[in-house]
Specification:
Helices cover about 20% and strands about 40% of the residues. By secondary structure, the chain is of the alpha/beta class. The chain starts with 18 loop residues before the first strand and ends with a strand. Strands 1, 4, 5, 6, 9 and 10 form a six-stranded mixed sheet that branches. The chain has a four-stranded mixed sheet with strand order 7-2-3-8.
Length: about 180
């Protein structure tokens, strides 16, 4: 789902309840990151790349949600889930409603590079077009929209310095 977008008049997100979300920064043995390609269901020209993940279901933990969402959205189940890298709150319009999210980004590694969605929701089927592995260099020069907006910089720092000792809190994004 869209995590950010162009600035605009948005209701005060602080007054809204935030959906708990687990996202995955999935790296393969060549340190490529897997991103999903999504778009606004009624406007395929409004499109972007983003990390796999989604909202918690029932009483599952964020770790459980991260692994479930990754399996549903990518078909990848052979994963070593690592620490939380980044946290952020965001608020954005998507599919005719406002989404307020408290997102945690988990590091994960895999040797399983064949990916295919296996359990997309109806909304995800209407708003995603595929998956792609990106190198850090490709991400740094991408002309496509990528979320979070600083992902290229964040990935380069992760690859150069390793995971942070504590999750980095990213600036809130309200669209």
């Amino acid at each position: 789902m869209r995590a950010e977008g162009a600035p605009g008049g948005a209701p005060d997100a602080a007054a809204q309840e935030f959906r708990k979300v687990a996202r995955v920064v999935l790296l393969d043995p060549q340190d490529r990151i897997l991103l999903m390609h999504g778009y606004e269901p009624d406007n395929p020209d409004d499109n972007w790349w983003f990390t796999p993940g989604g909202g918690l279901e029932g009483d599952e933990t964020r770790e459980e949600a991260a692994l479930r969402e990754l399996a549903e959205e990518t078909g990848i189940t052979q994963v070593q889930l690592g620490p939380v890298l980044w946290r952020r709150k965001c608020s954005f319009p998507f599919d005719g409603r406002r989404w307020n999210q408290d997102e945690w980004y988990f590091l994960a590694r895999t040797t399983q590079t064949e990916a295919a969605p296996t359990g997309l929701t109806e909304l995800e089927r209407r708003s995603t077009t595929g998956l792609r592995w990106w190198t850090s260099a490709e991400l740094s020069v991408a002309r496509e929209t990528v979320y979070p907006t600083r992902l290229a910089e964040l990935l380069r720092t992760l690859l150069d310095e390793g995971p942070p000792r504590a999750p980095v809190v990213l600036a809130p994004e309200i669209v």
